[in-house]
Each structure stands twice: as C-alpha cells, then as structure tokens.
Design brief:
Radius of gyration: 20 Å
Structural class: alpha+beta
Shape: globular
Strand content: 35-45%
Oligomer: single chain
Number of domains: 2
C-alpha cells in the first residue's frame, strides 16, 4: 500500500499579453475506493478573479476559473499525497459471458447498470468502424467470459502496437490507430474503448498518473514523469476493472486515478480559451515519488 507525492506543474509563457482567460481543470482528485488522498493543493498564477468547483456528469471534481488581469506568464500547479492500493481482479473463467453483459445493458434495471450503459456508445474521440469491431471479435469469441476476453484484447493491443510519441494527432480515432499500430497511452486507451463499445460493452477512459521507474543504476529525473491514460470496463457482480493496454497490466497500486469519462475530451487535465497571447511556450513537469 504505497503512499505517493504527486507534483504536476503547467507553465505557459506568452509573447504578447493575455487580456482575459477562462480555464477548466480536471486535476482535483476524485474519490475512488482503492485510493485515499491525504492532502491536495492547487496554486494558480495570476490569482483567478473568479473560481468555482463543481461535479460533472461523470462524478469528477472540476475547477473552473477566470483570470481578468493582463499577464504573459501563467502557472498551474497541483501537489498531493495519496495512499494507493490494488484491487483483487476477477478470476479467469468465472465472469459473465460478454454477450450477456451486452443484453444486460440494453435495458438497465439498476443505478449501476444505468451508469455503465452511458459508456457503451461512441463518443467524439472514440468512434469506430467495422475494422475495429472485427479486431475486437478476435478476442470476443462466442460465449467467452468478459474479463478473459477483455484481458486478451489488452494484451493484443500491447503486442500489436508500438509506443511512439508524435506518431498520431490529438483526436485520432480508433480505426486510425489500428491502421498505424503506433501511438501513446491516450491512443491505446481510445483503441481499446472503441473495440469494447463496438460490441456494445461499456468502457471508461481513465486519466491519472503512473509511477515510473528509473533505469538501473541511474537516478530518477525529477519532473520527467507524465500524465497517463488507461481504461476500465464493467464486469457484472464484480464492478469496474482497470486495464492498461500501454503496459499490458491491470490497474493497481502504481496507477493513480484523477478522473474518468467517455474519452480524453471529457477529462483533459487543463484546457481554456484566451484573448491575446500570440505565440507561446509550454512547459509541463510531472513527478510521482514514493514517500518514505
């Protein structure tokens, strides 16, 4: 049950003054059964004129704020300490058949299945075509338990695709990623989401952090970590199971959850609209350290 300190800083420097800006941040940690935030703070420069926290439709904590003074430098930093634990996964061969899950969600009869059904349809960043469905069906044979099939799909994406920063654009759809077989964590999450939803199975996009390990004999580079993305799928009689196709592992005590939604667009860590600014430089620093 490790305890981590997470520092995440985003800095924009603008060539011309920004006259006015509105921002939306999905960087306030949500309540999750397997993790407990012991502390969390946010620093914003310049100080926001208006600041409001709310809960979105997915249950995430969202911070909306406006800066009404001219500025050429913008800084947003979060610092938190979180206690994380893994969860026992379902047993192979013992979960509901995937076709039965599909039928269950056609007519949701409980709050749990109604919530799950929201994640079973295409969304702006996770549309799909027949090629995605055919790829998914290679793992989802008739009568196969949903957890077994989803786990194999995760492994196939990990094996078939190469982690290649810069190989895709933001907003690349699952079929594009499947054709190119290259991308980053966001892409592989969207591909797995598209595969599952093509079979009308629910799948969430999970945004957060992943503990990384330095190469043997070398010190860990401070600030060199990054945000991470993975997925979770609904397994009746068990709950939501987190799967990380980028690393071919189940979500565990090295995965720190911030937010979840249908796709990246629902939980982008920090976005906004500005008046002015012109050309700019962006620096992002993320550090995840185990507390001694």
């Amino acid at each position: 049950m490790p305890i981590y300190q997470v520092d995440h800083e985003t800095v924009y420097d603008y060539r011309l003054p920004v006259l006015y800006s509105n921002h939306l941040a999905h960087m306030l940690p949500r309540t999750v059964s397997r993790q407990n935030w012991l502390s969390h703070s946010i620093e914003v420069e310049p100080n926001p004129t208006i600041r409001q926290e709310r809960i979105d439709i997915f249950g995430n904590r969202v911070l909306a704020f406006s800066i009404e003074q001219e500025h050429t430098h913008f800084r947003f930093k979060t610092t938190g300490i979180v206690d994380v634990q893994g969860e026992e996964p379902p047993k192979q061969g013992e979960t509901m058949k995937w076709e039965e899950v599909t039928k269950l969600l056609e007519r949701p009869t409980s709050d749990e299945t109604l919530d799950a059904a929201m994640y079973a349809y295409a969304s702006p960043f996770a549309k799909f075509d027949e090629s995605v469905r055919n790829y998914a069906l290679e793992s989802f044979e008739q009568g196969r338990p949903i957890f077994d099939a989803a786990y194999e799909l995760m492994t196939r994406i990990y094996t078939d695709c190469k982690y290649t920063p810069g190989a895709t654009r933001i907003g690349a759809q699952p079929q594009e990623i499947l054709r190119g077989r290259k991308g980053v964590c966001q892409d592989f999450a969207h591909l797995m989401i598209g595969c599952l939803r093509s079979l009308h199975l629910p799948c969430r996009y999970v945004s957060g952090y992943l503990r990384t390990h330095s190469c043997e004999g070398q010190p860990k580079l401070v600030g060199a970590d990054a945000t991470h993305a993975w997925v979770s799928t609904f397994v009746p009689d068990h709950g939501w199971v987190e799967l990380d196709p980028t690393n071919n592992v189940l979500g565990g005590d090295e995965h720190i959850v911030l937010a979840w939604g249908r796709d990246f667009g629902d939980v982008s860590p920090l976005k906004g609209v500005i008046t002015g600014g012109g050309d700019h430089t962006l620096k992002v620093s993320v550090n995840v350290d185990v507390k001694e």
